[in-house]
């Protein structure tokens, strides 16, 4: 059925839309005929006539509000927000592996992840919700992580910020439902490799788990902890996001959907 999701002409803001999951979401929405505003620090190499890039520090209230104003001026309205921007800095809470404390959580790491993953979601959602409350309709979608549901070795602060985002989703759904606003979340598990899975990230995560980078990578490829037997695809996450933003999901609110191939702590 053509245009089944009926997202054509909808105005959607995607934070962190220049790479990884965010870029996949941006492309999917554009394929559906939506108008997309990409709020990111750097513009990607993808361009489209219905795509607006606004350079934005997601942890800055001033820049967030300016971005929303620009999006409103460009598209005349805002129908949805996808809080996708995030950062992950793996580190042990206490590094007893080496006396040098090579990968121990620092206050700077903590502040950076909270600023982007938690404060950024709060600032963007508050700014966009002012528009949606006036319209008495709209969707705010928070991109969480399986780590926020299950916890993650070597990624405790990252997991904690994502757990906070899950709580935002539940609370805001109760707070804004009276205005016709739905708030939903998606929690991806292990996904196919993207440019965001850098050697620096892999080295840090492998260290926290007392593995070599090669052993860490073999764990990704074997997918032995995933019942479906493979890593997820970016387009599968993007498909779910587009569905949840559409009126086809009009009675779904206050939940975070785990998209991880059946993987759970059990």
TrEMBL record:
Which UniProt keyword terms apply here?
A: Oxidoreductase
InterPro entries named in the record: NAD(P)-bd_dom_sf, Sc_DH/Rdtase_CS, SDR_fam
Protein family membership: Belongs to the short-chain dehydrogenases/reductases (SDR) family.
Cited SUPFAM superfamilies: NAD(P)-binding Rossmann-fold domains (SSF51735)
Its lineage reads: Bacteria, Bacillati, Bacillota, Bacilli, Lactobacillales
Q: What is this protein called?
A: SDR family oxidoreductase
Domain of life of the organism encoding this protein: Bacteria
């Amino acid at each position: 059925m053509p245009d089944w999701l009926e997202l054509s002409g909808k105005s959607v803001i995607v934070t962190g839309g220049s790479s990884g999951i965010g870029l996949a979401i941006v492309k999917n929405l554009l394929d559906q005929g939506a108008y997309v505003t990409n709020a990111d620090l750097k513009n990607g190499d993808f361009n489209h006539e219905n795509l607006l890039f606004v350079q934005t520090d997601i942890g800055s209230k001033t820049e967030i509000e300016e971005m929303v104003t620009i999006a409103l001026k460009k598209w005349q309205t805002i129908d949805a927000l996808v809080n996708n921007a995030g950062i992950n800095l793996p580190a042990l809470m206490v590094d007893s592996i080496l006396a040098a404390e090579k990968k121990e959580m620092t206050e700077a790491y903590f502040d950076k992840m909270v600023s982007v993953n938690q404060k950024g979601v709060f600032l963007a959602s508050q700014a966009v919700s002012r528009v949606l409350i006036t319209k008495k309709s709209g969707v705010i979608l928070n991109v969480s992580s399986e780590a926020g549901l299950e916890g993650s070795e070597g990624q405790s602060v990252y997991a904690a910020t994502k757990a906070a985002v899950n709580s935002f989703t539940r609370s805001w759904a109760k707070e804004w439902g009276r205005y016709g606003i739905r708030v939903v979340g998606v929690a991806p598990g292990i996904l196919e490799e993207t440019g965001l899975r850098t050697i620096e990230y892999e080295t840090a995560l492998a260290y926290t788990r007392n593995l070599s980078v090669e052993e860490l990578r073999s764990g990704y490829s074997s997918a032995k902890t995933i019942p479906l037997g493979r890593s997820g695809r970016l387009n599968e996450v993007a498909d779910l996001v587009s569905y949840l933003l559409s009126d086809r999901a009009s009675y779904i609110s206050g939940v975070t959907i785990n998209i991880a191939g059946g993987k759970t702590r059990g």
